[in-house]
Each structure stands twice: as structure tokens, then as C-alpha cells.
Amino acid sequence: MRIAVLGTGAVGLTLAGGLAGAGHQVRVGTRDVVESAEREDVAGWLVGHPDIPLSPLDEAAAWAQVVVNATNGSASLLALEAAGEPNLAGKVLIDVANPLDFSGGFPPTLLVCDIDSLGEQVQRRFPDARVVKTLNTMNASIMVDPTSVADGEHTVFLSGDDAAAKAVVQGLLEDLGWTDILDLGDITTARGPEMVLPLWVRTFGALGTPEFQLRIAR
Ligand code: NAP
Hints:
By secondary structure, this protein is α/β, with parallel strands linked by helices. Helices cover 39% and strands 20% of the residues. It has an eight-stranded mixed β-sheet with strand order 3-2-1-4-5-8-9-10, sandwiched between helices. Strands 6-7 form a two-stranded antiparallel sheet. α4 crosses α5. The radius of gyration is 16 Å and the shape is globular. The site of NADP nicotinamide-adenine-dinucleotide phosphate has 23 residues, from α1 and α5.
């Protein structure tokens, strides 16, 4: 599939590399191609991934069949607006962002919770996109290499209103090596995985490493 990953942070670059490694055509969307390409981390990554171009957000989204929102959660709506509502219409929009607020320092709080979620905000703002929330409950490295923790015996969640879109995302997750994929239901269920973040942050603090995962034993 043609997949645009929006954002050049750890998640964007890791997912782009993982999805390309799984055989997909990938572009990385960014606000400023020249500025991003000159960043040390991005420049090094581009050397190792010569087949994955950086593109402006709107060009990447227009080209893609599937769009991944890997932008900072506090700016995701702005980034997706820059990608362009018409370029998202009808497309599977995978939302891995977390609505974290670091303005009060560490640990972060949630910008939205309990009665709403970032996944729902994205779906409301882009009603013609087919939003699927997933992969937001783990460190970036595990997203593309689930067997790196507990031999892959752990859970990734799916939330979204569109069953066909969730089937596409399930297939992409399987391409990345996922086996325990738990469909929680419609996009309002994204509240649960997003509110995992306070637990995730404290677990990170207790273990001293982000290399851990949740398993829903059942
Ligand atoms: P991040 O530091 O949250 O930022 C990702 C990208 O967001 C930036 O590279 C930038 O892309 C874009 N961005 C930032 N401010 C923006 C603004 N004002 N307007 C438009 N775009 C803006 O990076 P990350 O750690 O890779 O995380 C990406 C998302 O995944 C976040 O929502 C995070 O909460 C979530 N997440 C992270 C992890 C993890 O392991 N880090 C795990 C699970 C979920 P450009 O500069 O390329 O335009």
C-alpha cells in the first residue's frame, strides 16, 4: 500500500522504516522538508532509508492510500489541517498520537480524557476520514518489532467506527508482526488506550525502561 507517515519524531521515522520493511511504499510527511532533512537524526535516518522520501504534509497525504498521524498530540489537528481535509477524505487515518500536556513538567497530564479523546477529536474534525486509533500504548520500537518484548505475547488495541478501515489496519499490524490485536469498538473506545498513558508513564518510571508492554490476559 502507499502509506504517508506524518511527523519526523521517533514514532514517524520508526513506523515509516517498519512499514517499508514490510513491503509498503512509504513517504514521510513533514512541515518543512529542508529543515527536517537537515536535522541530525533525520539526516542519519534518510541515509539508511534512501527509498523513503520526505514530502510536504499535503503532498504526502494526497499521494497515500493510508495516512498515519505520528505528530505531537498537542498539534495533531493543526498538522492534519496542513495535510488537507480533501487529502484525507475516504482514507484510512491511523492515529498513534497521544494528547500529552508537558506544560506543567513531568509527568505529563492529558489534554483530553474521560468524556472525549484525541481520536474522537480527529474523527469529528475530519468526518470523511476513516480514523483508527492504535499503537499509542507502547514505545515506538515495539510498534514495529513486537517480538522484542515477551516474544510478542502482548496486546495492541484498535478503535474506530469503520469496520473495513479496521480490517486494513489489522492487516498492516500483522505485517509488522502483531498477533494479539484487540478491537475495542468504535472511536469513543480510544478514550481507554489514551488514558493508559498515566499508567504507562509511571511504569516507565518504575522500570527505568520503555521496553515493556501491556498484555490483556484472557
Ligand atoms: P513528537 O515529539 O511528539 O513530535 C512528532 C512530530 O510532530 C514532530 O516531529 C513534528 O513533525 C510534529 N509537530 C510538532 N509540533 C507541531 C506543530 N505545532 N504543528 C504541526 N506538527 C507538529 O514525536 P514522537 O515521540 O515521534 O511522537 C509522535 C506521536 O506519537 C505523539 O503524539 C506521541 O504522544 C505518540 N506516541 C509516542 C511514542 C514514543 O515512543 N515516542 C509512543 C506512542 C505514542 P515535523 O517537524 O516533521 O513537521
